[in-house]
Amino acid sequence: MEARLSFITLGVADLARATAFYRDVLALPQIAMPEGAGVAFFELGKTWLSLFPRSELAKDAGVPDSPPAAFPGFSLAHNVRERLQVDALLAEVSSRGGEIVKAAEDAFWGGRSGYFRDPDGFLWEVAWNPQFPHV
Predict the structure, then answer these.
(1) Taking the CB of the first residue and of the last residue of the chain, which one, N or C, has fewer CB atoms within 10 A?
(2) In whole angstroms, what separates CA 19 from the centre of its chain?
(3) Based on the number of CB atoms within 10 Å of its own CB, is 29 exposed (0-12), middle (13-18) or buried (19 or more)?
(4) If you ran DSSP here, which 8-state letter would residue 71 be given?
(5) 61-79: per-residue pLDDT in tens?
(6) Cβ burial 60-84 (10 Å sphere, 16+ → b, else e)
(7) Among candidates 121, 91, 126, 109, which has minimal Cα distance to 12?
(8) Residue 116 class from Cβ within 10 Å (0-12 exposed, 13-18 middle, 19+ buried)?
(9) What distances in angstroms separate CA 126 from CA 53, 54, 62, 101, one per listed residue?
(10) ∠ at Cα 15 (10, 20), nearest 5°?
(11) Dmax of the chain from CA atoms?
(12) What tens digit of pLDDT does each residue of 13-37 get?
């Protein structure tokens, strides 16, 4: 397998609400889709984020649609270019409906980070890491 991640698909409870959050709050660039497509796509460089109704995603994968866990065992991350951008982005997300689960703080690894939860409970880390080359 090539070292490439093409899509991250999040199973969401309310596609319209989730789409509005990612488009309007996080300001991700949405890809135009035909009306009623039942999916939303956002281009993130070479990887795309897709939002798909949770029940339909489970059906497509052939697995039961069980209730989401309080902690699904993964997080998504967005690295910023400057230290104080962590605080600013978390404040912006909070003011527009995101839930801060861990306020920005200096991290043991030399950077700064905090976490928010989107309307479907997916965790996002916002981090500044002076050693990370991909920002």
Answers:
(1) N
(2) 11
(3) exposed
(4) S
(5) 999 998 877 788 889 999 9
(6) eeeeeeeeeeeeeeeeeebbbeeee
(7) 121
(8) buried
(9) 25, 25, 33, 11
(10) 100
(11) 47
(12) 999 999 999 999 999 999 998 888 9
Q: Write the single-letter amino acid at 96.
A: R
List the domains of the chain with CATH numbers. Answer: 7-61 (3.10.180.10), 76-128 (3.10.180.10)
Structure tokens at 98: 């995101």
Q: Which two tokens stand for residue 62?
A: 């052939």
pLDDT at 66: 87
Q: How confident is the model at residue 110 (pLDDT cuts 50, 70, 90)?
A: very high
Helices (H) and strands (E) in the chain, counts: 3, 8
- The tokens for 75 are 């997080």
